[in-house]
Amino acid sequence: MAGLYPPGAHEATTPVWITGHRLHTGIVVRRADIPPVIWPESDDFRGSTYLEVGWGDRDYYQAPRGTLALALRASFASRGSVLHVAGFDTPVEEFFPEADVVELALTARGLDALCRFIHEGYARDERGRPIVLGHGVYPRSLFYQATGSYRLLDNCNTWTAR
């Protein structure tokens, strides 16, 4: 984190937002601020002002309704993880009115590191392309197969904190 956050007194910054949706967290980046060479998958959401990314258990996150059985399996016997990426245009606090939203100011190096971290979260097929699993929770959103193993102590909150 040294040199990435917090920014120096006279250092240029870019805002990003952390969204808290009860038990789930996400990261929001203004699409125009994303270095496309670092996070090329953001091109899947051309025309969107913001992108929210969340990471979670494949079965629980994609289920129409979370259940206790899905939560227990996610915590102790996850069968895979996903990234959920949503594109939207309204201000973050308006798009997620029920969420706790925290704005952070990142340096250019910090933003690059964040975008690289997100890019590395996509699982890839044999040709190196991200694996789309289907439509997401919002009108402009997709689920992608992700890297990493979801479990009780390595969940969306620890992913967001990383």
Can you summarize this structure?
The chain is built from 5 helices and 7 strands. The protein has 162 residues and is an alpha+beta fold. Strands 5-1-2-3-4-7-6 form a 7-stranded antiparallel β-sheet.
Report low-confidence residues grouped into runs of 5 or more. none
Report on the biggest sheet. Answer: 7 strands, antiparallel
What proportion of the residues is helical, as a percent range?
10-25%
Strand tally is: 7
Series of secondary-structure elements, N-terminal to C-terminal: EEEHHEHEHEEH
Number of helices: 5
What distance lies between the first and last C-alpha atoms, to the nearest angstrom? 10 Å
Structural class: alpha+beta
Write down the overall mean pLDDT: 92
Strand order of the largest sheet: 5-1-2-3-4-7-6
Using only C-alpha atoms, the radius of gyration works out to 16 Å
* Proportion of beta-strand residues: 25-35%
What overall geometry do the principal axes of the alpha carbons give?
A: globular
Summarize the structure in words.
The protein is 23% helix and 29% strand. By secondary structure, it is an alpha+beta fold. It has a seven-stranded antiparallel sheet. The longest helix is centred in the C-terminal third of the chain and has 12 residues, at 108-119. The relative contact order is 0.24.
